[in-house]
Amino acid sequence: MAIVGTKRIESAQLSFTTGSSVTANLTGLCRRVLLATDADVYINFDADADTTCFVLSPSNCQVYMDNMHFTTINARGVSGEGTLYLIASRE
Q1: Is residue 64 part of a domain?
Q2: Which domain holds residue 24?
Q3: Tens digit of pLDDT for each residue in 3-49?
């Protein structure tokens, strides 16, 4: 569930499958993100995720990315379905 309004922090859960890319639309321009997943997932920012994108695995635990600018996160399962968990910051 997204935190909306003037909050600096937003969280979301994005359910994905191998069929096609799904999108989490964030409220405003985000600069930092913490990602975790329960299944292998292709991830892309501000564009559809496909098989050429960054892969996040559950064994990576959590990935923190800083100094970015994005408004959407897109996910596509590598070989099945799962959930991408994220916490994004606007500042």
Answers
A1: yes
A2: 9-89
A3: 455 568 889 999 999 989 999 998 889 999 999 999 999 999 999 99
How many domains are contained in the chain? 1
Tokens of 64: 């923190």
The 3-state DSSP class for residue 59 equals helix
Asked if the structure places residue 46 within a domain, the reply is yes
CATH code where residue 15 lies: 2.60.120.10
d(CA 38, CA 61): 9
pTM over 0.90, yes/no: no
Sign of CA dihedral 23, 26, 31, 35: negative
